[in-house]
From TrEMBL, chain A:
The lineage of its organism: unclassified sequences, metagenomes, ecological metagenomes. It comes from freshwater metagenome. Keywords: FAD, Flavoprotein, Oxidoreductase. InterPro entries: CO_DH_flav_C, CO_DH_flav_C_dom_sf, Diverse_Substr_Oxidored, FAD-bd_PCMH, FAD-bd_PCMH-like_sf, FAD-bd_PCMH_sub1, FAD-bd_PCMH_sub2, Mopterin_DH_FAD-bd. This is Unannotated protein. Residues 1-177 form the FAD-binding PCMH-type domain. PANTHER family: XANTHINE DEHYDROGENASE SUBUNIT C-RELATED.
UniProtKB/TrEMBL annotation, chain B:
The keyword Metal-binding applies. Residues 1-77 form the 2Fe-2S ferredoxin-type domain. InterPro entries: 2Fe-2S-bd, 2Fe-2S-bd_dom_sf, 2Fe-2S_ferredoxin-like_sf, 2Fe-2S_ferredoxin-type, Beta-grasp_dom_sf, Diverse_Oxidoreductases. Pfam families: Fer2 (PF00111), Fer2_2 (PF01799). GO terms for molecular function: 2 iron, 2 sulfur cluster binding; metal ion binding; oxidoreductase activity. This is Unannotated protein. The keyword Iron-sulfur applies.
From TrEMBL, chain C:
PANTHER family: ALDEHYDE OXIDASE 1-RELATED, XANTHINE DEHYDROGENASE. Gene3D superfamilies: Aldehyde oxidase/xanthine dehydrogenase, a/b hammerhead, Aldehyde oxidase/xanthine dehydrogenase, molybdopterin binding domain. The keyword Oxidoreductase applies. Keywords: Molybdenum, Oxidoreductase. Pfam families: Ald_Xan_dh_C, MoCoBD_1, MoCoBD_2. This is Unannotated protein.
Amino acid sequence: MIPAAFDYVRAGSAEEAISLIGEYGEDAKFIAGGHSLLPLMKLRLAQPTVLVDIGRISDLSYIRDAGDHIAIGAMTRHMDVETSPVLAEHAPLLAHAASHVGDPQVRHRGTIGGSIAHSDSASDLPATTLAMGATYVAQGPGGTREIAAADFFQGFLQTALAPDELLTEIRVPKMGGAGWSFQKFNRRAQDWAIVGVAAWRRNGESGVGLVNMGSTPILATSVSAALSSGASIAEAAELAAAEADPQNDLNASPEYRVHLAKVLVRRALEQASA
Amino acid sequence: MQIRVTVNGTAHDSDVEPRTLLVHYVREVLGLTGTNIGCDTSSCGACSLHLNGEAVKSCTVLAVQADGCEVTTIEGLAQNGEMHPMQKAFMENHALQCGYCTPGMVMAATSLLNENPNPTEEDVRLGLEGNLCRCTGYHNIVQAVLAAAGGR
Amino acid sequence: MTMTEPAASTVLGKRRLRKEDPALLTGEAKFTSDLNIPGALHLAVLRSPYAHARIRSVDVSAALQLPGVVAAYSGADLAPLWAGPMPCAWPVTADMKNPTHHPLAVSKAAYVGDGVACVLATSDAAARDALEAIEVDYEPLPAVVDLEDALSDRVVIHDELGTNRSYTWELKCEGADGQVERAFADAAYTVSEHYVHQRLIPMAMEPRAVAAVPQPFGGDITLYSSTQVPHILKVMTALTLGIPEHQMRVVAPAVGGGFGAKLNVYAEELLCTALARKHKVPVRWTEERTENTQATIHGRAQRQHIELAADADGKLTAVRVRLLADMGAYLQLVTPGIPLLGAFLYGGVYDLPVAYDFSCTSVFTTLTPTDAYRGAGRPEATYAIERAMDALADQIGIDPLELRRRNFIKKDQFPYTAMTGLVYDSGDHDAAATMAAELADYDGLRARQATQNVDGATKRLGIGVCSYFEMCGLAPSRVLASLNYSAGGWEAATVRVLPTNKIQVVTGTAPHGQGHETAWSMIVAEKMGVDPDDVDVLHSDTAIAPLGLDTYGSRSLPVGGVAIAMACDKVIDKAKKIAAHQLEANEDDLEFAGGTFSVKGTPDRSMPLAAVAFEAFTAHNLPDGLEPNLEAQVTYDPPNFSWPFGTHICVVEVDTETGDVDVLKYVAVDDCGNQVNPLIVEGQVHGGVIQGLAQALFEEAVFDEDGNPKTSTLAEYLVPAASDVPPITLGHTITPSPTNPLGVKGIGEAGTIGAAPAVINAIVDALSGLGVTDVPMPASPHTVWKTIHAAQSASSAQGVSK
């Protein structure tokens, strides 16, 4: 319940945050809303020696129409994603998925950037932005770079971010009226998904992201490929777990997760096509 | 580390260890023990209070993160000796038994109505997904929140 | 003594808001961890990470060097402080095996969470930091987590016992020897069912908290604890620590729920008290949730084998039950008695005149000790008989509600002497079942089910019924003696009229959410003709309420509340003497109503209780020989248990593709006799139902094969939230108990008893067309899905085409 002792510094800008994390080295961690990190620290499963607070970098909290995509500052809270009129119009799948993160108290503090940088495969937003073909912007000592979501998630809680890089922006393509569905299957509303599916479909195109179906969020490319080559929804859904490698835990065996993924992908695609 | 937090309308300047959780700060430094602790995983919501007007779980916020912020605890909800309408609704609908989850539940419920003044029963149930109660079975809590919404 | 009988209730039976609420709603109420205790040291306990390990050595020296640390001890260091082992008050058989159990383990740790060392420091953070510096050399030993494995004695946990079997307890009731066997041989129908009651974690929202405040020179010590049982705790702490009982005071401040888990004597209560005496400063401890899930008792954890025999009409002729119960690593306060509390109820609410046979064997495992959890033995019994009744109905091919109706004890059979010798006080099962069926639209649902559950349907409707008895009002002391329980079952009450006609009630009950202050005020108000707000209820402090046996087993109203009513009668009797003296009337000519004594037929000759109270206070003109003041004390030992009952109906829709269960409707009709405050009755049922439903659908304490807990936080142990459970439709019938003057029965556990079987019966009913005959608890989506798969594989394996 009580974290091990640490030092705390607050960054006023992205540049300052990057410089501080470089200064304190590998035992330092960024903290935004803290809703991924603090629970681990309270159970002493994480014991960083320095926390660099990026939660006050207010110029990283925004949702902007950027033409072909929506740009979302990394420090934008889940509640602001959920209730954004811009996202409701252009990326309703993301706004809806954000409404399923944790509970309202968590959504008042947790940020989209924190969630994606933490890259828990059981979290809703990494898989959702992956399904949407998002691009993430990382800033480091040498400047900024763009990383495609498909290249970002590299392993269990591992991303393409360098230790001294800060995720600053999430860019999601406008959905352009695509049909969409977000299916979250769990036992209690506040919990992580046992299996979750974020899907959209427009003309011949589609995107399907899977939550908690492996060590990283999964892009179900076989499903989309099957659909574009004329397979029925039911046929395509049978391929739901082709890219997945689900784990065993208290709530589900790998076999059950595979089965759920097929059922939920089918339901998601039916809803997205309705 | 030196922080200034305005709690229930009063500014407090305090020197806290960075690892001090906001819930420990209000309970132990300020003596506001109405905010309870029910778990260590941000699951139960007993420690819910308002940070800048929105419900948060104060076991998952560092006191240093609240520096410069406005905090309202259950002790700050009643005004001029009168319970807040949500507190009254909880009493009138028998929405509490042991009372341990109650401060957090009331703070979550008031935040819910701030964001959605006319919720359906399903909205209320989903809006309280982050608060656990072991006594009431939630039936009367939901009724209380609906009653408080209707009375506004 | 005369019992006053008011013409019509003016307060009792009316909804009344709780006087407890404003303090709880505003943060004013003080729970134990809220108490401001200057100078207190903080205790932290180092807990075994192994389910079973020999403790080779404990080195606390590094911890002692850390800032803020005042002391650190191993179990061996503290051994001289214990005058006796931790108490088990229920040696159910003469040969019951009970391992020695101390607050800190000395030579062996027997479950993950067993305390092995402790630290005292100036802050909680410093104390918990220092735990990481204690070096313990463990020799890990094989864990014992399975009950059959435990029974095999492959690994004996407690060396000194030589076995893992604690006891076998039997109850066989038959008119003539061999009647059970004959009934089964002659039966037209028999069922033989195996059920598992998974381990549950009670999970009161307030974790435990303790603070011991000594008076080093005065000699007294006060123990504040989040407990349901301050009186029992006082006696047991005094005995275990060798403290003269009169120097020991226990206070339970506001207590945030108990559900049986705080009906105990815990290591931390003894550690804080002993160390406060040793160090001559206050010592406090607040449990973290992760500790709570390991070091506070668990519940249920039984394997059941139940067999029913029935005649051609489906009428029950015999019930045979074999239990295997998990005690956990040690016997806590009433651990071994829990299966016995259910032993009398495996015949359910049915007329069973022929034969009954019950036996329970209990074993030790290397898991957290079990003990009382809401219902304690009775939910287990009710689950077994109510699930088995559905299996019997299925075999006979009749509606499960119809089978129950054929077997109900009829209204005119009460008081009914059961095979077990217990007398059921009153009941009308048919009326409760009828009301529940109407509220649920049972016939309409069955019609809808017939059209919905067709071949290939993926959303299947299920309807589950449970009729139950709640044996409560614990308990007649002589009955407890016959069960080898070490204490009585009485309750004490004092009613005191203050000079200004305000009334103080002192009760031995110890509320922790039940609203006793409100309910007891209503009883006094009804009796004495005062406003409930003019009554103050004092409780949960052994210096103020020295006599009592506390709150558990739905006993507080039918024992403690009745004691208060009787004390009121005694006060009125005395007041009547004073009024008669003042009014110069014969006592027998006076009547008492609405708070006023008046001469029968001459209402202008009257004296209000307020005037009598003041006369009693001044004592200027009392009848000769009468003591001043108006006060009476009663200790009431109930002549019988009370027997609340009811019928619950659960309606579910099961998604056969995912295994997800959606509870569409839940109807509970409960009869707890006369109700004091219907508002509180409803709240008890709501909460109880959701706890039972949570057992059926969500909760289980899971351990791996090495005895490591896998559900040690509220993120893993799934207590449902408002978003995850249905609203509840309530109905009530009222059948007063004839055994007490209030006609009350108790309601604390009814919901929990009724819910789990109703929910599981509904799920099995929904899936019966798929060959499913049972679904284990908790019926998680994964479990339901696996069960459907297994049933379908089995039926296709039997099919000709495969």
